[in-house]
C-alpha cells in the first residue's frame, strides 16, 4: 500500500507542477498559487462539513498550520530561484528536499534493509538527474543556490509535517483544509504586499476575466496538489517513511515525461538516464 500511494503522490505532484508551470506563462506564479489553493479550500471545506471532520480537531493540527506556512515560502523561493537560473541546475537541486523526510524516518527508528538503502541511493540520484542538470553554460548565482536549498528544505519539511497532522482519513481532510487555509493566508498576504509595491497580480490589460478562462486549469493544479499531500500522508502512515518519501519524490520524472508528451520537449540523455535510475531504485525499494 505504501508504494502504491507514494507513486500516486509522485504522479499527482508531477502533473500539478507541469500544470502550474504552464499557467505561470500566462499569469504571475504567486497568483497561480493563491487562486489554485482557494479552489482547494472550497472543496476541502465541503468535505470537512460533509464528513463532520471538525470533530477530530486536536493539537496535531499545528503540524498542518506549520506545513501551510512553510509551503508557500518554499514555493516562492523555488520560483525566484528558477527566475535567477539556470533552470537546469535549480530544478534538480530542488528535489533534494527528499532528504528531510528520509532523515525524519531514520530518526524515528526506521532501519531500511540493504536492498532498500541501495534503492534509496539509486532513486535519489535518478531524481536529480531526471531534472536534466546543466553541467555547462551560465554560472549559478549564489542567491539562486541559497533560494533553491531553502525551497528544497521547505518541500521536504511539508512532507514530514503533513504526515504527522492526522491519524484518520476524516482527520486528514481537516488537516489538509487547515493547511490550505494557511496557504491562502500566507500567499494572499504576499500577493497583497507585492501589489502595494506596484507589482500587478494579473497581466496588464487583462483583469479578473482571465482567471475565469483559466479556472479549470487552476482548479486541477490546486486539487492535484492537495490530493498528493493526502496520498503521501496515507503512504507515510502505513509504511516506512523513508520508502514513502523517496517514491513520492519521483515527481520530477513525471513532470519531464509530461513535457515530452504534451509539449514535445526532447528528453536529454541525462534525463533519460535519470528516469531509468529512478525506476530501478523504485523496484529495489518495492522489492525490499
TrEMBL record:
SUPFAM superfamilies: Multidrug resistance efflux transporter EmrE
Domain EamA: 3-130, 144-285
Keyword terms of this UniProt record: Membrane, Transmembrane, Transmembrane helix
Entry superkingdom: Bacteria
TM regions (residue ranges): 28-49, 61-79, 115-132, 144-163, 169-193, 214-235, 241-263, 270-287
Family: Belongs to the EamA transporter family.
UniProt name for this protein: EamA domain-containing protein
Organism placement in taxonomy: Bacteria, Bacillati, Actinomycetota, Actinomycetes, Kitasatosporales
